[in-house]
Design goal:
13% helix; 1 helix; two-stranded antiparallel ribbon; 6 strands; mainly beta; globular; four-stranded antiparallel β-sheet; 53% strand
């Protein structure tokens, strides 16, 4: 994946929605993260759109290495057709 713009980030300080959003534009792809830091523990949502082939297990393992996940809900979506559809989903728990 080749970075073509970013990363960029901005902090939002609206009551009930305090947190940071970061984005990076990749060639034919993008990634974004939204972190709500006022919650304990902090919660985040990570979106990755890519033409590369990878598994949810690989992505969650990498996120866990960086952030120390407790658990995560994930969903893989096929966006290559006129209608998007869910390929798979599940709950990831630290083993």
């Amino acid at each position: 994946m080749k970075v073509v713009a970013g990363p960029t980030s901005v902090y939002v300080n609206e009551p009930g929605n305090e947190g940071i959003t970061g984005t990076v534009t990749l060639a034919t792809s993008h990634a974004s993260i939204h972190v709500w830091d006022a919650q304990k523990p902090a919660m985040f949502q990570f979106d990755l759109y890519s033409c590369s082939d990878f598994s949810a297990k690989e992505v969650l393992g990498e996120i866990d290495n960086w952030f120390g996940l407790e658990s995560a809900y994930w969903m893989m979506i096929d966006r290559n057709k006129d209608t998007f559809f869910e390929l798979s989903s599940g709950k990831w728990l630290k083993s």
